[in-house]
Design goal:
three-stranded parallel beta sheet; alpha/beta; Rossmann fold; N-(1-d-carboxylethyl)-l-norvaline Dehydrogenase, domain 2; 3 domains; 423 residues; 13% strand; six-stranded parallel beta sheet
Length: 423
């Protein structure tokens, strides 16, 4: 919003985080975001605070962007941060303004929040609610914010719509579609989009299982399917499956909410999609065992990648980290490297060993696993890496590498869903 020319006050209850942001330090890795933060601070249009009173006095529009994680021992969404944010802010609002929900929520949450808001705000203050889901991809969040594919506005009044059109005037002028809906539809757009993406990823990984049984090549299958414009190639990349802090918990919350609404059978297929996705991780461990010709106990395993995807340091529900810890639990000596996520991984799993480079992770490895598709791994020289390992065995969990130069350098190359001899 600062980049679009607005004066912005960021609010968080964590004073340490607020101080770090005010000093230009990000709490996570996201390409391009540090530059935006620096420009916002230097312009004087961006400030940070822990004070809800200051926010109430300052804001004409309040974006509520708090997390909605999965509830412990349940598939549903934990909305406590969202309710806490509204409860803290609403009683302090003394003039007309718009509260805009950005959080991913079960359908019906916004309607309930509107009633909650009406009870909490001072009488006659003219406070409204709108729902404006985000569609950011980690690693591409800056571009997805400034140049979104679409803007969805769940509103109940023409005035709320007009305010959001003013806020997003620049992207709208550039031709970004603006879709106006009711609250529940706006909430469903987000979770439905994630469910569809999860279905495409899980479908091609299910085909990878069939390809292994039929001695077929899932990469060539995906390529051929992508030429059908009804199917398309986006999201059809076979491999280790999806993870992160959004997609897995969002589809589980979607299933839970559908069941609460009596429509659980309509999305029951998502349960199988979730199972397919999880099964890819155990299959990767099996593939490592196949490559070394037996149990991994006492073996040295090099792991390339810990983040759930490239251009991120996020290890939440990371398939890569899950595989690394599974290998360790089988008695393997795991040495891992990731360009961005090592510090987070080390905090979560100090039992693993970590290296500062690809060569460091590969040193003395009986088998090398590619678990996150960082460009650095694609560009690695198989001859140089081959001099470091104990055995030239590599399992590509992301179909990230070109097999030809690796095989030419004497490596045995395997990937999920591809026969051993596939090019």
């Amino acid at each position: 919003m600062t980049e679009l020319g607005f004066d912005v006050l960021g609010v968080d209850v964590d004073a340490t985080r607020v101080s770090a942001l005010a000093a230009g330090k990000l709490p996570f890795y996201e390409p391009g975001l540090e530059q935006l933060l620096d420009r916002g601070l230097r312009s004087g249009r961006l400030r940070f605070t822990t004070s809800f009173q200051e926010a109430a006095d300052f804001g004409d529009v309040h974006f509520c962007c708090v997390g909605t994680p999965q509830r412990a021992q349940s598939g549903g969404a934990d909305l406590s941060q969202l309710f806490g944010c509204i409860d803290a802010l609403a009683p302090l609002l003394k003039r007309p303004c718009l509260i805009v929900g950005k959080s991913t929520t079960p359908a019906g949450t916004a309607a309930g929040l509107a009633e909650r808001l009406a009870r909490l705000v001072p009488e006659g203050s003219g406070v409204e609610l709108a729902w404006n889901p985000e569609f950011l991809r980690e690693g591409h969040a800056v571009a997805d914010t400034l140049r979104p594919e679409r803007i969805v506005a769940g509103v109940r009044s023409a005035s709320a719509e007009a305010i959001l059109r003013e806020v997003y005037a620049d992207p709208l002028a550039a031709g970004v579609p603006f879709v106006v809906t009711d609250f529940a539809t706006a909430e469903l757009v987000k979770v439905a989009a994630n469910a569809f993406l999860a279905t495409k990823i899980s479908f091609i990984n299910a085909m990878a299982e069939v390809c292994e049984a039929a001695d077929a090549d899932v990469s060539r299958l995906a390529e051929a399917l992508a030429y059908d414009h009804r199917i398309g190639g986006a999201g059809m990349r076979p491999g280790l499956g999806f993870g992160g802090g959004c997609l897995p918990k969002d589809i589980r919350a979607f299933m839970t909410r559908a069941e609460e609404l009596g429509a659980g059978e309509a999305v029951s297929f998502l349960r199988q999609m979730d199972a397919i996705n999880t099964r890819r991780r155990s299959r990767m461990v099996e593939l490592a065992c196949e490559l070394v010709g037996g149990p991994l106990h006492g073996r040295n395993v090099g792991v390339l990648g810990l983040a759930f995807k490239p251009d991120s340091d996020d290890i939440r529900d990371s398939p890569a980290l899950d595989v690394a810890t599974a290998l360790h639990s089988l008695g393997a000596r795991v040495t891992a490297y990731d360009p961005a996520a090592i510090d987070n991984a080390r905090l979560a799993h100090p039992d693993l060993e970590y290296a500062g480079s690809v060569v460091g992770a590969a040193t003395d490895a009986d088998v090398l696993l590619v678990l996150t598709e960082w460009p650095e791994f694609r560009q690695a020289d198989p001859e140089v890496i081959g001099k470091a390992v104990a055995q030239r065995l590599i399992a590509d969990g992301r179909h990230a590498l070109d097999p030809a130069p690796w095989r030419a350098a004497g490596w045995t190359y395997r990937a999920l869903g591809r026969p051993e001899a596939a090019l």
